[in-house]
Amino acid sequence: MSAPRTAPRRALAAVAALPLLALALTACGYGSEAKQDDVKEAGVSTGGKKLSADTVKIGYFPNLTHATALVGIQEGIIAKELGSTAVKPSTFNAGPSEIEALNAGSIDIGFIGPSPAINGFAKSKGKSLRIIGGSASGGVKLVVNPKKIKTLDDLKGKKIATPQLGNTQDVAFLNWISEKGWKVDANSGKGDVSVVRTDNKVTPDAYRSGSIDGAWVPEPTASKLVAQGAKELLDESSLWPDKKFVITNIIVSQKFLTEHPDVVEAVLRGTVDTNAWINANPDKAKASANTALKELSGKALPAEVLDPAWKSIQFIDDPLAATLDTEAKHAVKAGLLEQTDLTGIYDLKPLNKILEAAGRPEVADAGLGVK
Fold first, then answer.
1. Residue 48 — very low, low, confident or very high, per pLDDT cuts 50/70/90?
2. Which residue(s) pair with 133 in the sheet?
């Protein structure tokens, strides 16, 4: 699987019939104040100026690939940019439920993977959301039982888990199988490789019981399996140009973007500041993310899981739009998605304004931006 360095204007997106996992939405608490000397500035703070909304509702997953949100809220970096506008965070276990919350107005801004963002945009005929920035790249691995699988060719005839039918990792694995020349029915998962859709929370138990032989999964699930004796066979980043592909985007409801552009810009300044702080202080950031995970789930990740998982994720502001376009094409090729026009899924003007103010280059929308 390889991604082109440029992408055409027209892209492809999800069919509305993809199944949703109706998982619980839970509220979480506010983060602490950021220490002034720890925050690497990347934009101009509101300076306490009153913004147009009293509250901004932000959704994200309790996953390391959403560490921009975990750390930005935990350390108060996002709140600092918002001044007197309060942050109301909520966590989700699956992309479809987060899109439903965005459509219902339960959240205004969300951190989410490419497949649910594409699906949400397509189902609303381009009226529900915009992608306004990037958050993370990488953090997806193929890990296997080394007693059963020693090479990539050994996957034939084996049972490999992905998180969900039609999700980002599922599409990536199906595309990889296709490029090997093997056949799998995308919907049933049956074929030369058995694709077993398994929630990330239970994948370690499934591996331990022997009901799966490996998994193509995001972090920290991949490192949890390695801690149980699995072996990393492939890092998905090796399949992409520059070893970068989008795993987490920042989205906003179009209604909120229209009514409160100043709040959206403030949140983006906070995420840019957060990513800069994460990259300048990786050990502090890793500990902060783990503290947030413990508060949300009741359990911190052990070092044997946290350390390798953290190293495999890049925290960036670029949404890597060309890779989203390619992921959509892979989904169509797998038979899970139908063609549609993704023009307008991106609005990177607020982000590029912030980057320009910081003396940094603009990021591209691969021809899929608003006109």
1. low
2. 250
Specify whether the CB–CB gap between 317 and 325 falls below 8 A. no
Strand ranges (DSSP E) for the chain?
12-14, 26-27, 55-60, 86-91, 109-112, 129-138, 140-144, 159-162, 194-197, 214-218, 231-235, 246-253, 313-315, 337-339
**CB-based contact 58:108 (threshold 8 Å):** yes
Q: How far is Cα 52 from Cα 353, in angstroms, rounded to an integer?
A: 19
Structure-token pair, residue 62 = 């309790």
Place of tokens 């972090």: 219
Whether pLDDT at 120 is above 50: yes
Lowest mean pLDDT among 140-144, 149-153, 294-298: 294-298
Does the pLDDT value for residue 1 go beyond 70?
A: no
DSSP 301: P
Q: What percent of the chain has pLDDT over 70?
A: 87
- Looking up tokens 């439920």, which residue turns up? 97
pTM: 0.84
Alpha-carbon distances of 196 from 202, 227, 237, rounded to whole Å: 12, 21, 22
Q: Phi and psi for 83 in degrees, rounded to 5?
A: 60, -120
Q: Are 171 and 331 in contact (CB under 8 A)?
A: yes
Q: What does the block give as tokens for 71?
A: 């750390």
Model confidence pLDDT, tens digit, residues 218-261 = 999 999 999 999 999 999 999 999 999 999 999 999 999 999 99
Helix (H) / strand (E) element for 226: namely helix 221-227
Coil, strand or helix at 170: helix
pLDDT at 172 over 50: yes
What are residue 21's phi and psi, to 5 degrees? -100, 110
161 close to 208: Cβ distance less than 8 angstroms: no
**Which long-range contacts (C-beta less than 8 Å, at least 24 apart) are formed by 97-103?**
97/20, 97/21, 97/22, 97/23, 97/24, 97/25, 98/59, 98/61, 99/128, 99/129, 100/20, 101/25, 101/59, 102/59, 102/128, 102/129, 102/251, 102/253, 103/128, 103/253
